[in-house]
């Protein structure tokens, strides 16, 4: 199982599935940050966009993800001030230029994105930009691996670990997971040759019966990771329990803003009260991102659910499994 959306896209785009023996199956896991964002968090973003004098800034992938009854794209069409940004720094710049507005950044992503968001909060403090806020829906990858194995439904013999996340947290972050489950683990890059080398290493481990935690992306990933990025991230955020689509509540798998920066925390400043119940529309994205099913198992796939008319985030996000299947596989 690859647990990185960039791996999923690269595997399908480059025809890697077709190069492998039929005895080797690649399964897509919860590696797309937009896809694992729970519906109630999408509803929270929508509620924030409707607050008075608020400019909501989001990554483009979030716009068409369905909430319970709407989406950010629909609310934008209704006239609410929702702006697409390429980075949290863009959101802070919008706040700087609009002192009469409250600018909220919808923080979605893994350990790769969280340090950048934390850095903008620290910079906003330094520059006295008082109208910049963050709603944190950030998630941490290692706890999700424990949750996947704990489900007992995912029949995987090895994990292709994410290169981007690993560059931040380092090889060391996976040691507790490997020590508990003794399952084959390989950190891999994203070029086709990187992925093939990673898969080859996993197969060799499994066939030999000697599993290990192996780093095949040493040109980018060190043992201890990016210490500076970790320091910035945990200067602003602390771990919290959070809900993942498909995996439910996972202890210490999310990041929320520390009390020291509570005046930047949109969830507290705006006192949002959103129902956490998930509403089903027939989409099986939760089962797809946990490897229980593939897009071809979904009756909505390519019939009523398409990139133009997505029923769930797996078909919306650029790193979503359904979107990647639609574009490159079938």
The radius of gyration is 20 Å
- Category from helices, strands and their pairing: alpha/beta
Annotation field: number of helices: 16
Percentage of β-strand residues: 5-15%
The main pleated sheet reads as: 4 strands, parallel
Going by CATH, the homologous superfamily of one domain would be: HypD, alpha/beta domain 2
What would the CATH topology of one domain be?
Rossmann fold
What's the pLDDT, averaged over the residues? Answer: 94
CATH class of one domain: Alpha Beta
Oligomer state of the chains in this structure: single chain
Write the layout of secondary structure elements.
Blueprint: H1 5-13, H2 16-19, H3 33-36, H4 39-49, E1 54-58, H5 72-77, E2 82-84, H6 88-97, E3 102-107, H7 114-126, E4 132-136, H8 141-151, E5 158-161, H9 163-169, H10 175-181, E6 184-187, H11 192-208, E7 213-215, H12 227-236, E8 237-244, E9 248-257, H13 266-269, H14 285-288, H15 313-316, H16 321-328
Parallel strand pairs: 1-2, 1-3, 3-4, 5-6, 6-7
Antiparallel strand pairs: 8-9
Helix pairs in contact: 1-16, 7-12
What this model shows, in words?
The structure is a single chain. The chain is of the alpha/beta class and 330 residues long. The chain has a domain at 35-139 and 227-269: HypD, alpha/beta domain 2 (Rossmann fold), CATH 3.40.50.11740. It has 16 helices and 9 strands. It has a 4-stranded parallel sheet, sandwiched between helices. α1 (5-13) packs parallel to α16 (321-328) and α7 packs across α12. The longest helix is centred in the middle third of the chain and has 17 residues, at 192-208. It is globular and about 65 Å long. The two termini are 20 Å apart. The mean pLDDT is 94.
């Amino acid at each position: 199982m690859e647990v990185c959306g960039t791996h999923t896209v690269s595997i399908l785009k480059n025809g890697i599935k077709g190069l492998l023996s039929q005895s080797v199956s690649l399964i897509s896991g919860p590696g797309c940050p937009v896809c694992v964002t729970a519906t109630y968090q999408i509803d929270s973003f929508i509620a924030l966009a409707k607050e008075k004098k608020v400019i909501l800034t989001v990554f483009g992938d979030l716009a068409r993800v369905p909430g319970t009854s709407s989406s950010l794209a629909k609310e934008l069409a209704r006239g609410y001030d929702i702006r697409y940004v390429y980075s949290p720094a863009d959101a802070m710049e919008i706040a700087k230029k609009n002192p009469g507005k409250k600018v909220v950044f919808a923080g979605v992503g893994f350990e790769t994105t969280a340090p950048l968001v934390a850095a903008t909060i620290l910079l906003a403090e330094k520059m006295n930009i008082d109208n910049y806020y963050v709603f944190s829906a950030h998630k941490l990858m290692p706890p999700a691996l424990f949750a996947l194995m704990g489900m007992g439904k995912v029949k995987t013999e090895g994990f292709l670990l994410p290169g981007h996340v690993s560059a931040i947290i380092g090889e060391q972050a996976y040691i507790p997971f490997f020590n508990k489950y003794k399952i084959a683990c390989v950190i891999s890059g994203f070029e086709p040759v990187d992925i093939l080398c990673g898969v080859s290493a996993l197969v060799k481990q499994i066939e030999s019966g000697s599993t290990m935690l192996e780093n095949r992306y040493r040109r980018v990933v060190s043992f201890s990771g990016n210490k500076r990025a970790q320091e910035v991230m945990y200067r602003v955020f602390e771990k919290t329990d959070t809900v993942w689509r498909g995996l439910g509540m996972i202890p210490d798998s999310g990041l929320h803003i520390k009390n020291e920066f509570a005046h930047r925390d949109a969830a507290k400043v705006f006192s949002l009260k959103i129902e956490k119940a998930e509403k089903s529309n027939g989409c099986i994205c939760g089962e797809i991102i946990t490897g229980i099913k593939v897009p071809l198992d979904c009756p909505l796939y390519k019939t009523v659910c398409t990139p133009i008319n997505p029923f769930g985030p797996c078909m919306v996000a650029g790193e979503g499994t359904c979107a990647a299947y639609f574009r490159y596989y079938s």
